[in-house]
Structures are given as structure tokens and as C-alpha cells.
């Protein structure tokens, strides 16, 4: 399952990434393998989404979220 | 100023870095450019407890030393380049105590460059409120660096921080974080050996960034490239490995030193606010409401101070006329220069209010929510959620907004944003719109609370946003780009705006506006006044001769005669000749030659319009009767038809022209600077001029 499929409010754990270039940026921002991640909210038009990760809130597009594979 | 110590401030965005910078330096700061690049460099001075003076350099906020944007790339070159004139003796890394994990990544990278470092642990008050307990002594001991808890907004801990700066070691004492060399052992060893580098992390950074940094030679860069091939070094894989290793180190460190309570994150105040402000339905409505409120307030709150300023200038002009001997020079000073200046100064209240709103929106964190809400919509038209900030900033001024597009990583998105930002109604258009609206739109309320003039102005603002979006959509198909865009962005928690920061921004922006516009206006007023007061050949003499003939002196009253002479002289002056020369081109738009003169001068800067109008009508008007520009324009009549010059059709046609035309030399210059290619400003100038002409033409013929 990828992060983009996670339901609002549910908690997932990051397993790996499908896109190396994107993963470098995501990991710098605290999205690391083993880290808990949950969907905080969805933008009014359905995209992007806001997630809670590493103790703060990050926004990313659904496409970017789909490169994060959860356990 | 002689300095004993150079200190660089480094930290993530939203950590309170600029607040700390302001407190450390007071108002004793200056803004310049980093050498070779046009990134704003803020430096200031701070006197330490022992009397030594420290120069403080504020580096752009970044999440990592691997730059994702141009601004961020400055950080590594200032810290690592030994020949950089700004190379610091000491680095203060600012960490947000409520968000330590992600903040520590940058610290661990900076620490590994082996520069003496101090940690300023900011937002300690908020961390305590959240129940976060940090064992600061253990934290400092494990890292081997001084850690100073501060609350920059409240001013807590600043004295201790200054003390730590005074006592800072000249040699780096920080503990190793990760085994950097293990990421690419052979390559790091080889680069270190060949280039005589004693710091493995510096060697590794060169391997990653050698293509983009300016302080190593082309030969060195090529050699690094060869070595990378030899040892099959993959930059992104190495970065990923490094980041994972660093976070492992950080997790271990924080496990021992920080206790974060396991409360449900949904309970935080920020989340409650976001439930409303980014709500599916209310979110966008509230955003529109905020914009509407902003523009209504700009009108309502500025009315009284504007009247005061305007009356003040009329008084000054009257006094000058009484004190100085009558003559051409008095006319130039009192009518040309003072008149032109008053046309601009009167808009200080509006500009100050506009900047207050923008700085509040940014300071509270609401601007990043707007980005979040608008991304999908913006992407549809070829922009990016992050384009919203330059576009809204464009309400103030296109120049800083175009510079702020650097946060957009994607090249195509950034170019399109730059191309359309000057379409957004900037503060220089505000005087023109206000003046023209007040001439033709009645000042009364409709639907109880909405002032018609305010609505007309809001309409112009909304129209400018719509046209920016439509033009962006067209550019989406014209500009070619293959780079992919990111939208990985922090949503900072909501904070109260820093009111002194808001006040400073109001003061600073108004001052800049007055000085920049003031200089141009004085220069143009003088030139224009000369052009309007003298004519080619013997034309003026012939006019004087003509009106001395009895057919005029006998049938006209003295003041009528005077007005007729002045009016004919203006028409035959150099400015009049110039205006007449372009009249055939602008006549289809409803403009006469006088407006033509204003259009020509406005190509230097839009705000010159009001001053030009003031100068032109003062040359023609009588000296005894002082009136504001507005009154003069209102009473101006077309000599052929006898109807007012500024009819509804002409006023809106003129507003359309100013809405689209690229009448700003500073914007042209900044677009060139940011794109490094004349093609972009040239294309922008061309498309905007064509749109301006077309929109004016349509507006005039629809309303006529």
C-alpha cells in the first residue's frame, strides 16, 4: 500500500520509496523508513494532502505520496 | 565597521531565524547581495558583553546542505569556501525545540564541516507548553557544543547567547556525528589526498556539488568527475544513505535526551484552526473573504490620512507661491516637483496598510495554507501552489515577488510564474486606479456595506488575478520544460504575527516606495516641466504675437485670454508635440495627447502617471487657484466636444492599459536578472503591450 491510499486519520509506517530522486528530498524532510506517518487533512480540491510525520506537518501532492510505500 | 568576529546564522525555515537576527542586531542591519548572486544578504552588528563587535550574517533558511534552490546553495558556499569573504568564524545553528528531529539534520551536516558551532535552541517556551522535556546538559555534552535555550520572540536567553558567542572556541570541538567516509570511502580518500582536504565531509560535499559550486576550478571539477566514474559514485544513492545514517544518529541522541508526550496530535491548536481555514468549503470562501476585507480596508482606513497628506501638500504649494517670486522656477518647484511628489506621497497610507496585511498573512503561517489549498487549481493552469506567494506578493510589488519565485524548484513553473506576476495589480497601480475610480465611480454604498468605489477596485484586483491565470494557461503550452515539480513543503504551526515586524515592514516598504518613486518623479517632473514650458522654433513667440491682436484682446476677458495662451502654448511645447505624435496611435483607445504624455513617462514607472497629470494640468491651470490633481482632472473638458475628458469609457480604458502594460523599468531589469536571458523580458514586454492595447480598445468601445 502507498501513502496516497492511506485513509484520513489512519497511521502507517514508511517502508520504502519507489522514486530515488524524490526519496532524497522526502527523507531530508523527515519521511524515513520506519517512521510513523498519518494523513492530517486533504486540500479542498482533493490534492495535495497534509501528513503528520517526525513531529510536524508536511504537505505533498498525491503523486508524491504514491511513491512512499507503507508497511 | 571593524569586527572582531563573524557569525553566521543557519537554520531551517520557520525556526525564528530572522526574529533572532533582528534581536541580535537591532535595527543595525543592512541588506545587500551575496557576491556573484542576487540572493538577499542580511548582515548586522551585535556588541558582545566584552565589548567586541560581532558581524552577524543571516543565511537563507534551508533543510539541508544539499541545495534544492538557488537561495539554499548560498549556505554551503559561505560555510565551506575558505576564500569566501563571508566565511564565518562561528556558526549559530538555530533549532526549533518543538521540532528537533528534522531540525537536527542540518545541524549534523553543518557540524561535520568542522566550523566552531553553537546551538540556539529556540521556541523553548512553546516546547515547554507542549510538555516536551529536553535534558539540555546531556544534549550539549553528547554533541560537544554549547546549547543555549532561547525564546527569540520573547527575548529570553539572548544575553546568554551573546555570552556564548563571546566565549566561543576558535577551534571546532563538536563530536563526530556519523562516519562520513564510510559512505564512499575510496572516493573521499582520493579527493582528500589529491586536493589536500583534511575534512572527509567537505570532500564528500565536493563530490556531490562540484558541478554547481564556483569556488573550485574547472580542472578540479573535471578531476572529481573522473574519480566519481572510477569509483562508480552515485550522488543520489549516497545522499539517501547519508540522510538515513544521520537520522539514525539523531534518533539515538534524541531518545536519550528528549521526552515528547504521546498526546493526540489532532488536539493541537493549529489543527483546530486548520480544520476551519482549510475546510473543504469554508477554506476557499474564507480566503476570498480575507482578500475582499483587505481591499475594502485599504480604501476605508486610508481615506482620512490621505486627505491630511493631500491638504498638507496643497498648503505647501500655496505657501511656496506666496513666498517665492512669481516666475518659471517657482512654477517648476511648487507645481512640478511638489505637485508630482504629493501625487505619490498621498498613497503612503494605502501602501502601508497593504504591506501590513501581507506581512501578517506570511507571519501567521496562513500563506502556506493558501499555497496548500490552491496547488491543484494552480497546477491546472501551468503554475504551482508555490506560485500563489509571488502572485499575492505581486499585489505589493512585482520586483521582490519575482525574486521570491526562487522557492519554486521546477524551472517551467518558475518561468511561467515570472511571466505572469507583473499582471497582478501592484501598489504602483493603486494610485492610478484610485484616482480614476474616484473620478467616474460614485462614492456610495450598495448592499449596505459595500462601497461602490471599493467594489470597483476589488474588481480590478480580481480581474488582474484572472488575467494572470489565463495568460499562465497559455504559456503552459508555449514554454517547454521537462523537469519535474515538487510540492514537498512544511506547513508551519500558526503563530501570532510579530507586531513590531509588521510595523517595521510597513515603515520599510513605504520608505522604499517613497524614495525610489520620489527620485524618478522629481527627475521626470523636472524634465516634463521643461518640455511643457518650452517649444520648438518660434512657436511660443508666435502665440504671444497672435493673442496681442485686437480681435482677441477686445473680445476676451483677461483670465480667458490667459488660459487660451497657456493652453495653446502647452499644445505647442515639446511635450505637446510628443503627445500629438503618438495621438493617432492612442486615439482609438479614447486617449488625447495629454494622456499620451502620461503614458510615455509611465514607461519608466507607473506611479509617475499621477505626477505627470499634476504637472501637465498645473502648467495649464491658473496659479491663484490651487486644486488637487483630482479636481483638475475632473473639471478638464475636451475643447472639441465640451464634454469631460475623463468619461467612464476613458477612465476604464486607461485602467485597462495600466492593468496590462509593462510600465516598470525595475521589473524588466529583475526579470532579466532572474532569467539571465533577454528573451524573457522582451517576450513579456511584447505580450503585455499587445494585451494592454487590445484590452483598452475593447473597454473604450464597449463603454463609449
**Largest sheet of chain B at a glance?**
7 strands, mixed
Q: Biggest interface: chains and residue counts?
A: A-B, 33 and 45 residues
Question: DSSP strand (E) fraction of chain A?
Answer: 35-45%
- CATH architecture classification of chain A: Roll
User: How many domains in all of chain B?
Assistant: 4
- By secondary-structure content and strand pairing, the structural class of chain B works out as alpha/beta
Rg over alpha carbons of chain B: 30 Å
How do you describe this structure in short?
Chain A is built from 2 helices and 5 strands; from the N terminus they run βαβββαβ. With 71 residues, chain A is α+β, with helices and mostly antiparallel strands. The model of chain A has no long low-confidence stretch (mean pLDDT 92).
Characterization of the model:
The complex is a heterodimer of chains A (71) and B (704). Chain A is built from two helices and five strands. Chain A has 71 residues and is α+β, with helices and mostly antiparallel strands. Chain A has a single domain (3-70), classed as Ferrous iron transport protein A (FeoA) (SH3 type barrels). A five-stranded antiparallel beta sheet of chain A has the order 4-3-2-1-5. In chain B, the strands form three sheets. A seven-stranded mixed beta sheet of chain B has the order 2-3-4-1-5-6-8, sandwiched between helices. A two-stranded antiparallel ribbon of chain B has the order 7-9. Chain B has a two-stranded antiparallel sheet with strand order 10-11. In chain B, 45% of the residues are buried. Chain A binds chain B through residues 20-30, 32-33, 38, 40-41, 43-48, 50, 52, 54-61, 64, and chain B through 63-64, 66, 68, 98-102, 105, 236-237, 239-240, 243-244, 247, 260, 265-266, 270-271, 274-275, 278-281, 283-284, 368, 371-373, 375-377, 385, 486-491, 493. Strand 4 (56-60) of chain A pairs antiparallel with strand 12 (489-490) of chain B.
